[in-house]
Design a protein that fits this description.
This protein has 159 residues and is an all-alpha fold. It is built from ten helices and no strands.
C-alpha cells in the first residue's frame, strides 16, 4: 500500500488497540463490535481518498477535515475516556461523508476499500447510519447530515 510510515503506524496502532479490545469482555459482548473493528479500514479509505487525484478538491477538503478530526484529541465523544466506543462519532461522520462521496465516486471508494477489507463497505455504512440516532442523538445526527449534505440512503448513492 502507499501509506507513509506515520500513517501506517497510526493505522496499525489503531487496529491493534481495537483487536485487543475485541478480546476483552466488553469487546466480545459489544453490539457494535463489527463497526468498531472496521474503524482502521475506514480511516485507511478516507486517507487514500485525500491523496487520490481522481477526487475533486472540494471533497478532499472535507476528507482532510475528517482526517484531522480522527487524529486530534478533541472529539464529541472522547476516545481517551470511552475507549473504542469513543470512535463512534468519528465513524458516524465518516459513514455520512463516504455515503455522499459514493454517489459519484463509488468505484474509487470500493477500490481503496478492497485493499484492506473483505467486508461489504455499503452494508457497514448502512448499518452505521441506521444506528446513528442511538449513538449520538437525533440533534447531533441532524448536524452531521447538514455537514455532509447527506439526504439519501447509501443504496441510492451507490453506483
Amino acid at each position: 500500500n502507499n501509506m507513509s510510515t506515520q500513517e501506517r503506524d497510526f493505522y496499525q496502532h489503531l487496529r491493534k488497540r481495537l483487536q485487543d479490545w475485541e478480546k476483552s469482555d466488553d469487546g466480545r459482548s459489544h453490539k457494535y463490535v463489527e463497526y468498531i473493528l472496521a474503524i482502521p479500514d475506514f480511516f485507511y479509505v478516507i486517507w487514500q481518498l485525500v491523496k487520490d487525484d481522481r477526487i475533486p478538491y472540494d471533497i478532499k477538503i472535507k476528507l482532510g477535515g475528517l482526517v484531522a478530526y480522527w487524529i486530534l484529541p478533541i472529539d464529541l465523544i472522547p476516545d481517551f475516556i470511552l475507549g473504542p466506543f469513543g470512535y463512534l462519532d468519528d465513524l458516524a461522520l465518516t459513514a455520512a461523508l463516504l455515503s455522499k462521496i459514493m454517489k459519484q465516486h463509488g468505484a474509487i471508494v470500493d477500490e481503496h476499500w478492497q485493499k484492506v477489507s473483505d467486508k461489504d463497505i455499503l452494508g457497514l455504512i448502512e448499518g452505521i447510519l441506521a444506528d446513528l440516532d442511538k449513538w449520538i442523538g437525533t440533534g447531533m445526527w441532524r448536524r452531521v447530515k447538514k455537514w455532509a449534505k447527506f439526504d439519501k440512503t447509501p443504496r441510492d448513492l451507490h453506483l
